Amino acid sequence: MLGWTVLNNLKLSPETRHIPVQIITLEEERSHGLSRGAFSYLVKQATTEDLESNQNLRRSTHEASASRRRQRH
User: Fold this and answer.
1) How many domains does the chain have?
2) What is the distance between the alpha carbons of residues 43 and 28, in angstroms, rounded to a whole number?
3) Residue-wise over 27-49: b if at least 16 C-beta within 10 A, else e?
């Protein structure tokens, strides 16, 4: 589910609209987030190191999952 959908669903429901939402994203759509009820909006900077780290983490997680599947069979 997209974060915008989550934010919209939270703010439309009387039971959850009081929950404070802070958006942290790579997209610079500040007015879009604030107009939909977010109390804060931060744009994070993605560095090459961040992207490589995430790729390595995804790879190691995938390899660990594959190893567990092989052990079960």
Assistant:
1) 1
2) 6
3) eeeeeebeebebeebeeeeeeee
Distance CA 33, CA 16 (A): 17
- Tallying the residues shown for the chain, one arrives at 73
User: Taking 70 as the threshold, does the pLDDT of residue 47 lie above it?
Assistant: no
Query: Which pLDDT value is given to residue 11?
Result: 92
pTM of full prediction above 0.85: no
| Residue 40 C-alpha from the chain's centroid | 15
Per-residue pLDDT averaged across 8-18, rounded?
Answer: 93
Q: Residue 18 belongs to what domain range?
A: 3-72
Q: Which amino acid is at 24?
A: I
